[in-house]
């Protein structure tokens, strides 16, 4: 028997997550069984508990969408992966990573960078892949441009700061509160804006001499998106990453026409289906940057398995600073 957090009905994480003992999951065709070393809490974990995510695993399920771990067993028809390998990637629901063991698709397993700890490596997958595809493939960020990152101390925002700096951009990070501002500075943001006490539109215009941000990285949506259109540069690009603010914006296309900017959507998960080689290429580039020290996921808090439910709830409530990760060694 193995321990795992399980959601039996949807609701707030603190109310619906229960630590249970289950039979060890068995890998099916094309799958591998992995001993979980670490798994960061992502906002999709919160949304899945609430039943509000676009992917709705059948109940009961174990959340934890990404992980770093050791391959311990291969399912039928698996090639190219060996037991004992240290890997990162996404978990296969309903056997997610907030558990002692999880399942992964063998074809999507990636080697864990040696330069990163288990907790750091576990957070290099979704957030950094999203940042890589968003900034490079979709927005074409260039050295010398200005990048505005919203929710800059969160999972995808923190990755975007480091990737923007690695690309040679000037990075402006927007956060909520002084503690998160310190995280954004530690990540390397050139300018940090506390939205609770400052107007990011005014700061962007001042920083850029009135030109505006060339690229806006927006995982928040709603009013944050609307205000971003007031400080976007000529031929700027607004990346729509998500809607953590709870409101899906209705963009004014006439405004995009008049100011000559682009609105770009990014659903990174689709690349796993449509262009898996591009995902592997991005991982190779991210691993190279990690080896050089240019990117390193900032894990501000590590929790043991029994602390996962509280951590997921705090992420959902916006009460965490930096990345929080389940670490089997904590």
UniProtKB/TrEMBL annotation:
InterPro entries: ADH-like_C, ADH-like_N, ER, GroES-like_sf, NAD(P)-bd_dom_sf, Quin_OxRdtase/zeta-crystal_CS, Zn-ADH-like_protein. Pfam families: ADH_N (PF08240), ADH_zinc_N (PF00107). CDD domains: QOR1. Coiled coil: none annotated. Residues 14-326 form the Enoyl reductase (ER) domain. SUPFAM superfamilies: GroES-like, NAD(P)-binding Rossmann-fold domains. Gene3D superfamilies: Medium-chain alcohol dehydrogenases, catalytic domain, NAD(P)-binding Rossmann-like Domain. PANTHER family: QUINONE OXIDOREDUCTASE-LIKE PROTEIN 2, SHORT-CHAIN DEHYDROGENASE/REDUCTASE. This is NADPH:quinone oxidoreductase family protein. It comes from Saccharopolyspora taberi.
């Amino acid at each position: 028997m193995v321990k795992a957090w399980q959601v039996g009905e949807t609701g707030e994480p603190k109310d619906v997550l229960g630590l249970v003992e289950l039979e060890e999951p068995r890998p099916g065709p094309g799958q591998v069984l992995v001993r979980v070393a670490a798994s960061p809490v992502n906002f999709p974990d919160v949304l899945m508990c609430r039943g509000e995510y676009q992917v709705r695993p059948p109940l009961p399920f174990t959340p934890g969408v990404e992980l770093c771990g050791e391959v311990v067993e291969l399912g039928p028809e698996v090639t190219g992966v060996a037991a004992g390998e240290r890997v990162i990637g996404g978990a296969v629901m309903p056997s997610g990573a907030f558990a002692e063991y999880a399942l992964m698709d063998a074809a999507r397993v990636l080697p864990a960078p040696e330069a990163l700890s288990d907790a750091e490596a576990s957070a290099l997958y979704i957030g950094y892949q999203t940042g890589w595809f968003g900034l490079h493939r979709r927005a074409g960020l260039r050295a010398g441009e200005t990048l505005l990152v919203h929710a800059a101390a969160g999972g995808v925002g923190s990755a975007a700061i480091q990737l923007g700096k690695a690309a040679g951009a000037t990075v402006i990070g927007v956060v909520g509160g002084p503690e998160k501002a310190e995280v954004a500075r530690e990540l390397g943001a050139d300018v940090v804006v506390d939205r609770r006490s400052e107007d990011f539109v005014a700061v962007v215009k001042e920083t850029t001499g009135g030109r505006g941000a060339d690229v806006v990285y927006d995982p928040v949506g709603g009013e944050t998106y609307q205000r971003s259109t007031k400080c976007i540069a000529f031929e700027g690009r607004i990346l729509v990453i998500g809607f953590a603010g709870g409101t899906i914006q209705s963009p004014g296309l006439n405004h995009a026409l008049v100011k000559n900017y682009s609105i770009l959507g990014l659903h990174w998960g689709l690349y796993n289906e449509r262009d898996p080689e591009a995902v592997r290429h991005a991982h190779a580039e991210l691993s190279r940057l990690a080896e050089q020290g240019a990117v390193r996921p900032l894990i501000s808090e590590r929790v043991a398995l029994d602390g996962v439910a509280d951590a997921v709830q705090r992420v959902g409530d916006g009460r965490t600073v930096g990345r929080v990760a389940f670490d089997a060694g904590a």
